[in-house]
Amino acid sequence: MPLFTKRGRKEKVSDIYDLKHTIGTGAFSEVVVAEDRKSGEYRAIKCIEKKKIKGKEDTLENEIAILKQIDHPNIVALLDIFEDKMHVYLVIEL
After folding, report:
1. Does 2 fall in a domain?
2. pLDDT tens-digit series, residues 51-86
3. What is the CATH number of the domain that holds 53?
4. Residue 4 domain-assigned?
5. 18-50 burial, b if ≥16 CB within 10 A, otherwise e?
6. Is the predicted pLDDT of residue 12 greater than 70, yes or no?
């Protein structure tokens, strides 16, 4: 059962975005440039390994909740969330 996305969502991140190259890494994730397959717009996708956040899921839930509430020109917007067995993907402005 998905923890961070809507129940029953059938799309995979790779169905919507063409993942290009890594632009950054951190302790729990890496950020990849991606191109929207329909619009051609570029986005950043934060790819978070679930095994690395095991026991710290509340931290990710807080990050998602905060990003959903913020609307500021100097802070990237959270555009979408995908989840599979191994990862959570946060689609954000590039």
Report:
1. no
2. 998 888 888 899 899 999 999 999 899 999 999 989
3. 3.30.200.20
4. no
5. eeeeeeeeeebbebbbbeeeeeeeebbbbbbeb
6. yes
Classify residue 5: in a domain, yes or no. Answer: no
Residues in the chain: 94
Contact status, residue 62 vs residue 4, Cβ threshold 8 Å: no
Whole-prediction pTM: 0.87
Segments forming the whole domain that contains residue 67: 13-93
CA distance 50 to 86: 6
For residue 67, being part of any structural domain is answered with yes
Query: What pLDDT score does 49 carry?
Result: 93
- Determine contact, residues 54/67, Cβ cutoff 8 Å: no
Q: How far is CA 73 from the centre of its chain?
A: 19
The count of other CB atoms within 10 Å of the CB of residue 83 is 20
Question: Using CA atoms, how far apart are residues 45 and 63, in angstroms rounded to an integer?
Answer: 14
Total count of domains within the chain? 1
